[in-house]
Amino acid sequence: MPIRALVFDVEGTLFKSKSLTDAYRNQVLKLVSEKSGLNGEALLKEVRRVISELRREGYDQRPPSTLIAERLGVTREEFYRAIDEVNPGDHVKPDPELVSALKEMKRTFKLAVLTNLSRKGLTGVLRALGLSEDVFDVMLTADDLEALKPHISAFKRVLEALKVNPEEVVMVGDIVASDLAPAKILGMKTVLVSDEPANSPHVDLTVKHVAELKNKISLLQ
Predict the structure, then answer these.
(1) Could you report how far apart the first and last alpha carbons of the chain are, in Å?
(2) Disulfide-capable partner of 59 in 13, 63, 106, 136 (CB 3.0 to 4.6 Å)?
(3) Which of these three, 88, 123, 143, is where a domain ends?
């Protein structure tokens, strides 16, 4: 069945920014500290415990920050209120190569975003990258989803919004457990954005930058 749509994760996929990740993390740590009374090494020990717990559950790359926060007693509303204080434009640079590649792929495929960022966070990131929102036919954020990735319902929602069958869709992400494994379960093709190839049945193709897809997407047809 021919590919009709490409679905993209955002953070770690359309861009990589350690400083933005750190800024988000610091906001959440501050919130957890205020709620729990933990500070310093005691706080970090609790965070490490939660991350180890999630890794034992299968999140062996980078456990989703939303899940980490939840295990630390932070509500979804508190989490997004905290991280939305961060301005992505202070940490993300324009990427003309990405912009050009997405515009080229849009001529052939429907494009969508499926992210655990809020709508405000996504808008800030796209603006910083130099991307117009109208590049994407569908944008689903934490504001639109009852259950966030890796819950399979999030992936079903994007398929419904695009009006396509799973076999006609490629899911592009940087974390196998939360971006690609659920998509593969539904029958979608998958692309991992990583500097290292992955030995996983959930990964059909690996690229180092999303722009590579415009020349490699035929390998998935």
Answers:
(1) 8
(2) 63
(3) 88
